[in-house]
Design a protein that fits this description.
The protein is mostly helical. The protein is 50% helix and 6% strand. Keywords: ATP-binding, Cholesterol biosynthesis, Cholesterol metabolism, Cytoplasm, Kinase, Lipid biosynthesis, Lipid metabolism, Nucleotide-binding, Steroid biosynthesis, Steroid metabolism, Sterol biosynthesis, Sterol metabolism, Transferase.
Length: 140
């Protein structure tokens, strides 16, 4: 909104998003420096459902914010894939983007409750997700 960008186009993997990506990262870092909980509060604003899935947290400060505010109700899930799998999905490493905190800020310093492997084996993925969902249902 601040920069007049097309929000829907920023959600896909298009060249439109990529042309603004480094600028978006800088803007986001400025917001976080001023207020580490800025994006987290926006994500939960007005939410009233008993279970939330907050996808794409990117930094330790995000995880810490949710844990501080919601305590034991927070369950962290990391989805991983090998670099080979990621390359088959057309991922290419871009210096200054893919090694920035916005992309790898949770690679260290977080103990995840669940780690889901998504390397293309649909049955394995389904089994992992079902185990996760059943565990969460048991806690409701």
């Amino acid at each position: 909104q601040e920069h007049g960008l097309d929000f829907q186009r920023l959600l896909d993997a298009s060249s439109y998003k990529e042309s603004y990506r480094q600028e978006m990262i800088r803007w986001g870092e400025e917001k976080r420096r001023a207020d580490p909980g800025f994006f987290c509060r926006r994500a939960v604003e007005g939410a009233a459902q008993p279970v939330w899935v907050v996808s794409d947290t990117r930094r330790l400060s995000d995880v810490e914010w949710f844990r501080d505010v919601y305590g034991a109700a927070v369950h962290t899930v990391r989805v991983v894939a090998t670099e080979e799998t990621r390359r088959r999905r057309n991922w290419l490493f871009v210096a200054g983007v893919d090694d920035a905190e916005s992309e790898c800020g949770l690679d260290q310093g977080v103990t995840f409750d669940w780690v889901i492997t998504n390397d293309g084996d649909e049955q394995s993925l389904d089994e992992q997700l079902e185990t996760l969902l059943q565990s969460l249902r048991d806690q409701l």
